[in-house]
């Protein structure tokens, strides 16, 4: 579940296991297009992913008291797994769209007022987010953030839809 760059409109699906469905995400950031398809069973000869106008969300991360949380790292949320059987939980955590040239996943942050923007989201895909205090990930603290948690929101957009999420509460895990 990572993003890879390609200079053409073709790609190769590698490491595919017909027994395990594969989610494929494609994005053209410069044209604000994105798409998603699930491949299961035998891989098709020519896999086609329909690209549509991508979605965009904005919001502000706040704590349980409503105070903004500045300079947080935002990453995709995945359900906790304690055993391989937990992989049948029904939710597949999609990768966030790349926003840096040399990265295979999206790396987003809130600004000094807790605000964030995520662009190029694939239409119809359900995104969930986690946030943590990146500034306090120091060796002296054992690389443990002061706060970390899921955001109390599920993002699922229609083609080309912008959505202002407003204040999004962090559900602290500590």
Describe this structure in words.
Strand 1 and strand 2 form a beta hairpin. This protein has a seven-stranded mixed beta sheet, with no helix packed on it. A three-stranded antiparallel beta sheet has the order 1-2-3, with no helix packed on it. Helices cover 0% and strands 33% of the residues. With 174 residues, the protein is mostly beta strands. The protein is built from no helices and ten strands.
Features:
seven-stranded mixed beta sheet, 174 residues, 33% strand, mainly beta
How do the helices and strands line up, and which of them pair or pack?
Layout: E1 22-28, E2 33-39, E3 52-53, E4 55-62, E5 72-76, E6 108-109, E7 115-121, E8 129-133, E9 148-151, E10 162-172
Parallel strand pairs: 4-10
Antiparallel strand pairs: 1-2, 2-3, 4-7, 5-6, 5-8, 8-9, 9-10
The termini sit apart by: 28 Å
Number of strands: 10
The residue-averaged pLDDT reads: 82
Please give the largest β-sheet: 7 strands, mixed
Tell me the overall shape: elongated
Number of helical stretches of at least 4 residues: 0
User: Order of strands across the widest beta sheet?
Assistant: 6-5-8-9-10-4-7
Q: Spans with pLDDT under 50 lasting ≥5 residues? A: none
Helix and strand pattern: EEEEEEEEEE
> Whole-number radius of gyration?
17 Å
Structural class of the secondary structure composition?
Answer: mainly beta
Give the helix level as a range of percent: under 10%
């Amino acid at each position: 579940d990572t993003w890879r760059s390609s200079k053409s409109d073709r790609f190769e699906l590698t490491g595919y296991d017909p027994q395990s469905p594969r989610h494929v995400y494609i994005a053209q950031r410069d044209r604000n297009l994105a798409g998603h398809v699930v491949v299961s069973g035998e891989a098709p000869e020519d896999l086609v992913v329909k690209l549509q106008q991508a979605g965009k969300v904005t919001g502000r991360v706040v704590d349980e008291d409503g105070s903004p949380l500045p300079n947080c790292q935002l990453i995709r949320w995945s359900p906790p797994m304690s055993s391989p059987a937990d992989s049948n939980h029904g939710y597949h955590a999609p990768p966030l769209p790349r926003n840096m040239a040399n990265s295979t996943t999206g790396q987003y942050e809130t600004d000094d007022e807790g605000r964030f923007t995520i662009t190029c989201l694939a239409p119809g895909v359900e995104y969930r987010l986690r946030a943590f205090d990146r500034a306090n990930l120091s060796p002296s603290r054992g690389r443990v953030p002061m706060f970390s948690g899921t955001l109390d929101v599920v993002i699922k957009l229609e083609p080309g839809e912008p959505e202002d999420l407003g204040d999004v509460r962090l559900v602290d895990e500590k």
